[in-house]
Amino acid sequence: MTVLALVASLFALLLGGAGPAFAHAGLSGSDPADGTVLKTEPRYVTLTFTESVGFSDDSLRVLSPRNERVNPRPAQHVDGKDDTARVELSGKLPRGTYTVAWRVVSADGHPISGAFVFSIGAPSETAAVVATGSPDDTAVGRLYGVLRYVAYSGLALLVGAAAFVLVCWPAAGAVRPVRRLLVVGWAALTASTVAMLLLRGPYETAGGVTSAFDPAQLGGTVTGRPGAALIARLVLLAVTAVLLRRSVRRPDRTDLGVRGRLVGALLAAALAVTWAAAEHASAGIQVALAMPVAALHLLAMGVWLGGLVTLLLLLRRRGSDGREVPAAAIGRFSTLAFSAVAVLVGTGVYQSWRQVGSWEALSTTSYGKTLVVKIAAVVLVLWAASFSRRWTARLVRGASPATGVSTVPAPERVRVAQPVGAPAPGAGTEPGTAPGAPAGDAPGDEGEPPPFEAGTYRRSLRRMVTVEAVLGVLVLVITTVLTGTQPSRAAGERAAAASAGEPRVKVVTVPFDMGTANHQGTVQITLAPGRVGENTVEAVVYTSDGGLAAVPELRLTLTQDELGIGPLDAKLKDQKGYWAAYDLRLPMPGVWTLNITVRTTDIDQVTVHDTVRVTSVPR
Question: How far is CA 204 from CA 210, 234, 263, in A?
Answer without folding.
Answer: 14, 20, 35
